[in-house]
Design goal:
Strand content: under 5%
Number of strands: 0
Helix content: over 70%
Shape: flat
Structural class: mainly alpha
Largest sheet: none
Number of helices: 4
Amino acid sequence: MTDGGAAPQWYQDIAADLMSIVVGRIAAELPPSKAAAALPLARSPVATVHGHCVFALYGTFDMLGETAPVEAALDRVREAIAAAAI
C-alpha cells in the first residue's frame, strides 16, 4: 500500500486464495518428502510472474527485446519447481 499500511482485508483474502491455489499446484509437482517446501517456494514464482506481468504491461520487455514474456515466466516457474524437487 502506498501509505505503508496493511492491505484491505478483501485484498488479503484474494492473495491468500491465490497462494492456496499455487501452493497446491506446486505441492502436486514435488515429491512427497518435499511437499512442506511448497508454501515458501510458491512465493517466488508468484513474484516472478507478477514481475513479468508488470514488465509486459509497461513495455519494459519490449524495450529489453523480450518477445515471449508468458513463455519466459512459465520457464522461470518450471525451473524453480524442478530445482526444488531435487
